[in-house]
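Folds abound. Consider this:
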Amino acid sequence: MSLTLILTRHAKSSWDNPTLDDHDRPLNKRGRKSAQAVGAWLQQHNLVPDEVLSSTSARTRETWDRMGLQAVKICFHRTLYLAEPEEMLIELSGATEPTVLMLGHNPGIAEFASRIVRSAPDHARFHDYPTGATMIIRFGITDWADIDWHSGDVQEFAIPRELLE
C-alpha cells in the first residue's frame, strides 16, 4: 500500500476590497471557475481525497467547496494559513487517511512542493506554483507519520489555465 498527497494551492483570489483582511479574501470569478476545473480533473483521474487538510482562509475554504468533492475527514488548520514548509510537513505527518488533499498558500506551498518530491515534474510553472496548481504525489509508506523530505514521486501536475483550454 502507498499513500497519496494531492497538493493544491488555493484558486485565484479577489483583491476588489482593499479593506478586507488577507485571511478573509474570497475567490474571484476566474478562481471560482479554476477550482471547479481542478475538482473535475481530479474526479476524471479517480483521485478523490479521503482527508482534507486546509488553511482556514476564506479562499482555501472556497476553493475546497467549489472543487465539488467529498471527503471522509475535513480539517481546517490555522497553522496552514501562510505556512512554512516545515509546518506543512508536521500537519501532513498527523494525517490518518490514505489519500490526503492539502490546500495552502504561496510561498510556502511552492517550497513544500519542491522539497517533498524526489524530482520536480517537467513543467514550466512548477517552481512558482501558480494559483490552483495541483500535484499528485505518491509515497511508498503506509503511515503519514513516516513522511520525509524528497520521498514522493510525482504522478501528475496541472494548472487551471491548461485544464480550462
About this structure: The longest helix spans residues 29-44. Helices lie at 29-44, 58-67, 85-93, 108-116, 160-163.
